[in-house]
Design goal:
With 654 residues, this protein is of the alpha/beta class. It is 54% helix and 9% strand. β4 (252-256), α15 and β5 (282-287) form a beta-alpha-beta unit.
Length: 654
Amino acid sequence: MEEAAEVRNETDAPQRMLAAYGRRCLAQTTQECIKRLVKEYDEADKKTAAPMAYLRETFGLSDFAVHVLRISFSLLFDTTFQNAFRAMNTESTVLDVLYTLYGGVNAAGFEIVNENRFLTTCLLEDSGSCLDINPVLSLPVMYFLMGLDYICDATVSDYCLYEYSVNEAHNLLYKANIYNAVRSAAGVAEVSRLLVYVCGAEGAGRRTAIKAFCEEEQSAVVFISATIFSKEPQAARLLLPVFTDCVIRGIRPAVTGFHLLNEQERADAIRILRGLTVYVPLLFVTGEEENAPCVEGFDTISIHIPKPQGLQRVFIWQTLFARESIIAEAAEYANKFDFTIGQMQRAIHAAKLNAALEQRTAPTTGDITNACIRQIRHSLMKKAKRVDTVFGWNDIVLPPPQKEMLLAAAAQLLHKHIVYDTWGFDAKIPYGRGLSMLFSGPPGTGKTMAAQVLAKEIGLELYKVNLSVVVSKYIGETEKNLNEIFDEAVKSRGVLFFDEADALFSKRTEVKTSNDKNANMEVSFLLQKMEEYDGIAILCTNLLQNVDEAFKRRIKFIIDFPFPDRQMRLLLWQTILPGKAPVSPEVDFDFLSGFELSGSAIKNVIVNAAFAAAAEKTELTMRLFLLAVRNEFFKSGKLLNKEDFSQYHVLLDA
């Protein structure tokens, strides 16, 4: 279908035939009918003088066009007037007769019609014959002349939404910014029409920004889904009344979701919009991409709606919490979740629904946190595994210095907005604000557990990167995989955990072969991504000496996890054992702590002893613990003798 100007063709019949036809029709009517036409014309003119004058000025109508509109409007209400057309006894359309009566029957008459081509597209519709008169005026014009608001039909209403107001939280953020930007652009525009492309992430407030602008200028807005151009073959015909209504009532049209169209659909949409917007002075288009569409006849400006940052994000959480009477720490959620306003609203709504299902009057912080996590959509699970964060600070056993460093790392995230926004550090540190940590130490000393504790403390999900999926023998594939991981990590707002990180973050070497060059490129790429990443990344290694020095300089926290001494091992035995476990009073934990086992090995011993006790239907006895200890050492290739078990060796001989 051609652009909006797909309309009746004024030259369907030869001019000579139309002229002869006009004279014949006029001859068939009586003087009384003609007088009646004039009388009805005059009455219609009195009733619609102001609206007609508005239409004349808005669309730049000629006298001929205004005459046609007046006659067409009179045809709607007076049966005598309708009968006058029926008396002509012709199968020709009402429009053809009007063109004959008022447009003239010569070439000049057709020039008048052609000068008002928009009249035949937006203001009038092709009707049936004079014998069966249908409404000639288009619906928006008819509603306007009757003093009513136009209501689009069911098919179009699936794609169109009229809005007249904006909520206060959004208004405070966007009204002044977009209003001033549009007005400034309009002041320097080279043409009289302006296309404003509003871009930003989903939920950033693109539609709300447009509503705020329209509220500021006291106008309404109609949001038109761009999917109509891909789903409806007759999109131009369906949207024609909507854009006509926008021109008549001063409503701002906004085409939303332009990024959802493919290249061909975008080209078709631009072509259709070029025809539909002939009389539209201001057109809004929204999308997620930064490339704005260009429509002929419009000056184009782009306005990016960023995600709220720092104190602004805290303010929005506070506003939303106060509105719903929710008691929660806004700064905590502002630091944890880099959300758009739409995501914040949806999270609170989901939390309220969960509370209602559980018959609670208000959502808890747990409801809000879980709802926030569910708002996050990402594909990180393709190359990383989510780790359940079940451990807390009371579960981990570390020397005081290491535990204090973990607490300091958690505090950096929880108080990020104060340091960077309130105290102005954001101006001094434009990048590298992420929280990077390096855990080093022998296997089983609690590095993975510390990552779980940290993730649980700050209320984020933990994702363990699957190195087998990331590392590739093909040149460039490893960098590509890592780039996808960091991009998805930004969306997930989770904690990235690289176990055995020395496989990725190893030292760069002197370039002797092409393999050395590619390996160094991977390390350099990782350095760049680590510095750009604004989230939390934890690197874990058993061999700190193998990690590139450049990484160490960029790591904010390097925490060494030592092999536990006897005092720590005793605390581990007591901490790992659940309170409900049936432990025999004879168990000598002080003696058991003398075995040089890591925290992970102690956990294995306790679990194996527990299953053995369950099988024997007894308590957890000293004998079962000693057997589990012997088996644990045997796994590592070390055999224990009687002297190692001291006085308790008799329990093993029994």
